[in-house]
Amino acid sequence: MKLLGLIVKSARRSKRRTALTVMSVAVAVFLFASLRAILDGFNAAAAASSSTRIITIRSTSLIFAMPSSHTQTIRSIPGVRDITWANWFGGIYKDPNNFFAQFAIDAESYLRLYPEIELSASEREAFFADRTGAIVGDGLAQRFGFKVGDRIVLQVGIPTYGSQDFTFTIRGIYRAGAAAVDNQSMFFHWKYADERSIEAGQIGWFVVEIANPDAAAQVSAAIDQKFSNTPYETKTDTEQQFASSFVSMFGNLNVLLGSIGLAIVLTTLFVAGNTMAMSVRERTTEIAVMRTLGFPARAIFLFIAGEGLLISIVGGLLGAGLAWAIVDGQNFGVSGGFVPPFGVTGRNVLIGVALSALIGVLAGAVPATMASRLKIVDALRRVA
Amino acid sequence: MALIELRDVTKAYRRDAIEIPVLERVTLSVSEGDFLGLMGPSGSGKSTLLNLLAGIDRPSSGSIVIGGTDISGLSEGALAGWRARHIGFIFQLYNLIPVLTAFENVELPLLLTSLSKKQRRDHVMTALDIVGLGDRTKHYPRQLSGGQEQRVAIARAIVTDPTLLLADEPTGDLDAKSAAEVLVLLRRLNSEFKKTIIMVTHDPHAAERATHVVHLEKGTLAESMEVT
Question: Is the ipTM above a cut-off of 0.95?
Fold first, then answer.
C-alpha cells in the first residue's frame, strides 16, 4: 500500500504523457471489446440455432428465389414435420441509413416454428388477422419509437416488389427469446408482398422442422435430391450451418477480426513499453537515489512495473467502459436479421480489462527489470 | 573502538580493456562520533571512497567493516537492507524526488520500515524541525531554495537515525550563505546528536567544520593517518 501511493504520484509526474498512454490503451481495449462483441454476436446466433430446424435455399445463392410449389414437395419428404418460408424484403424506412431487416413470412407457420419470437396472444391474433399487419422487435421499436397501432411506410428496395410504397400497421412488438432471433427485425405477411410482386409465388428460403435432429443430414440430402437437375436446385443445411455460412459471406471473420485485434494490442504494447522505457530513462537518478536510500531491487521492480500496470488498467477500464456504454444492441443492432444485435458483454469488459493488465505487465516488465538492475554509481554519474 | 575500519581497500574501474585504478590500498579507521572531512583534487577518489562506505559500490579488494559488519561480503539484497538501517546519504545536487513534497521526500526511507503512519509522521516532523523546515512540509522541491532543498535532503538522511551520515560535496551547489547554514547544521548533528559524519569536499572552509580531515591524492591517502 505504501508503494501504491508512490506509484500514483509517479504516474502523475508527466500528466500529458500519462494521459496519452492511458488513451492509447483505452482505444485498443475499446476496439478489442467491440470486435469481440461482433464476433460473439455471430457466434451466438450459430450456437443458439435449433437442432430441429433446417434451411433450404437456392443452390446458387441465397439471393435467388424458388417457386412456392417446393413447399408441398418438401412437406412430403419423410422426416419433415413442419415447414414455413420467408423472403427478404429490403424496404427503406424514410432513409436508406435507417436500415433494418424486414421479412415477408407465412405468419402462422413461421411463428409456430420460431417460438423464440415471443408475442402476447392478443398481438399474435391481431397480426394474423391483418393482411397489412406487421410485428417488430422490441429493440427496433425502441430505436424508432414504434408503438402498436402505428402505421409505417416502406419504400420498395428490391424491384421484384414493384415501385409502390408498402404501408404496414404494427400489430405487435415481439421479444427475442433466444440468440437465434434478433430483436431488430420486422415481420409481415408473405401474401401482402407476393400479391404485388412482379413474379408471384417466389420464396427466398424454406425453414423445415424435422422430427429427429440426428436425421438432419439425411433429410437435407433428400430435399436437395428432390430438386436436383431442375431449374431450381436447392441447398439444405442445418440452421447452425446456415448461420455460419451467412457469417462466412463476410469472409473468415474470426481470423480477420482476430488479426485486427492482435495488431491493435501489439501496437499499443509497443507504445506503452516505449513510454515506460522513456519514463525510466528520465528517472535514472531518482531510481539510483531510492536504491541508495535502501530500496531493494525488488521494490524498484514493483514500483516501475506497478506504474505501467496502473496506467494500463486505467486505460483498460476507460476503454472497456466506453465500449460497454457505446457498443450496445441499439446502436449496433443492424445485423441483417440473421444474428442477434451486437453488444459488449460483461465478459468482454473483463477480457478487455485483463488484456490491458497484460499490456501493462508486458510493457512495464523490461523497463522495470532495467531499473531494478541499475548500477547505482553509474546512475549517479559520480566518479570522482 | 572504531566505527569504520577500511583495510587495504583498492578500487579499479574497467573501461573496455583498460583498467583504471581509483583507490589503492587505502587503510583508514574512523571512530564513532567523528566528523571527518575528506579532501582532495578531482579524480583523487574521494567520492569513490564515499560510495564504498555507503555500500553502493564494491571494492576490488580489501575489507570495509562498519559497525562490526563487513559490508564487502554482503549480497545485493542484504546490502540494500543494511544501507536503509545504517546510512544517511547527502548528495551535492540534493536529489529530492520532484513529485513528492518535502514531507514525503523525508518520509521515503521510512517506507522501508514497519513504522505506523503516525510514527512515520512523528519521525518526519522531528527531522524537519531539526533542519528548521517544519513549516515547509507541503512544499515541493521546485518551491524551495537550493539551501532549503539541501536541508530537506539532510532531514531525509537523518530521519532513520542512521549509524553514519555521508555527505558528498553537500555545499558544492549552494551560495555562501546557504552553504554556511548547511555546514552549521552538519556540525550541530555531529556535536549535539553525536552523528558520525564523513563529508567529501573541495572547499577548505567547509573542511574547517570537520573535526578531522583526510587528504586523498591519486587514490591513496596523502597522509595515511588513523583518526581516533
Answer: no
